[in-house]
Amino acid sequence: MQPLLKLPEREPMDTEAVTALIDRTVAAWGQGDAEAYGASFTADATYVTFVGTLYRGREEIVRAHRALFEKFLLGTELADRIVDIRPAGPGAAVVTSRGDVYKHGRRPEDAKLTKVQTYTVVREDDGEWRIAAFHNTKRRTIMERIQFAFARETAPV
Q1: Is beta strand 115-123 parallel, antiparallel or unpaired with respect to 92-103?
Q2: What's the whole-model pTM score?
Q3: pLDDT tens digit string along 103-134?
Q4: Among 14, 121, 143, 153, which residue's CB has the most CB atoms within a 10 Å radius?
Q5: What is the distance between the alpha carbons of residues 78 and 44, in angstroms, rounded to a whole number?
């Protein structure tokens, strides 16, 4: 009996290239370089900040970050610890990380990182990995503790 649906073979995940992409993105932020930061994203990328602002496209991401790096985020760096990289089909992966913004070289300990990021990354036609979608969420640890205390089954294992 033939299977009804033949799933495509999963290609090996190039975790080194994906990690290098995230590292380049973090480095560009630390240099306050909006152009280099934007180069990590696809031309049609979506970007959701932890306050809920939605940017569409590399040009908008660059424009917004240029202003942010000159004002509110001047002199900041990113802490980013990748928690998981998993393939999402040929030439695509989902990256989950914990992170934070900091100043004066005072990087928070990994356990104290207050944000959770999800990146959808793709390998484009030029062979380079870029971020197609980014979503940043602020952790509410007190709310987590309350939820887990009253509904233990909701706590991750």
Answers
A1: antiparallel
A2: 0.85
A3: 988 888 887 899 999 999 999 999 999 999 99
A4: 121
A5: 23
